[in-house]
Amino acid sequence: MSEHSGVLPTLVSMVVCDQVIDDRLTNKKSAIGIFNTIVVxxxxxxxxxxxxxxxxxxxxGRAELELRLVxxxxxxxxxxGKGVVEAPNPLAVVDLLFAMQGIQIPEVGQYAFxxxxxxxxxxxxxxxxxxxxxxPGAPPGEExxxx
Length: 147
Description:
Elements: E1 10-23, E2 28-34, E3 37-40, E4 45-57, E5 62-71, E6 76-86, E7 94-105, E8 109-117, E9 120-131, E10 144-146
Parallel strand pairs: 3-9
Antiparallel strand pairs: 1-2, 1-4, 3-10, 4-7, 5-6, 5-8, 8-9
């Protein structure tokens, strides 16, 4: 349960990428391979790994968050995970790193990652899944995000 004062945190940014690197010495985060489109060779398909970097502020105390992967065409929730975040003060910006593996994509189309707090949406990041036509330059069996 959230222990916030009724004021929801503010989502500053959210990116979908190949991976997020967290430098423990400098506390800097690097989003590597940011993309908006994933090209697959077949559907259903598995995205073997991807990262999400989200930044929040205006967190009062503790806030329970939920990250969901939704298909836009029918709002079907394909993945959901919950966690709690805390901030030292409401002005602090907290970076959240998500490493996702084995995400199942049932069909081509528009999808979105949504970040919610107390069942209220904070924001969403859309991406598109396309089917590779399989021309002569297409490597067989490769499923990778395409920039």
